[in-house]
Give the backbone structure.
Amino acid sequence: MKNKYYLGIVLILLIISVTTGILFYMGRNEENIQVGTEIGEKAPDFTLPLINNEEISLSNLRGKKVFLNFWATWCPPCQIEMPAIQKLNDHHDSIEILAVDLRENRDTVSEYLMKNSYNFRVALDTSAEVSNKYLVRGIPTSYFIDENGVIMNKHTGALSYQKMLELLRIE
């Protein structure tokens, strides 16, 4: 009699566990992912002017992995990191690079890019609205975003090319 009682309890717990698991799995789709700046959250969308006077929205880059980098021309660690970003741009067409310059004017940024022969995509965050949205407290700060717009990794400080590949989960 006691065994049937315990067996009944185990079966009820098993049914509850399976049902909970199924509901959790079904409810875990892209619309239910919280927007934020932490790993596993959906990256906040934004629209910024590019250095070439066009505009770009992060949401337009969906379907590809995105390397989102916050930087400035006067920042020594950013300057150290730039050749690695250019190498990533040159060797990985499947990665969308968006370098967001903070609080500098178009002429200053254009001159820096031309002087150093950098040709990756650069946006201007002159009001720091986007960097504030991403809680950037030091530069360079990089976000690694997957094809669905979800943050895979983030890093503050200069990165090597190899570390970029690792954080983008590229082999």
About this structure: The chain is about 40% helix and 20% strand. The helical segments are 2-27, 76-91, 106-116, 129-133, 161-167. The mean pLDDT is 90.
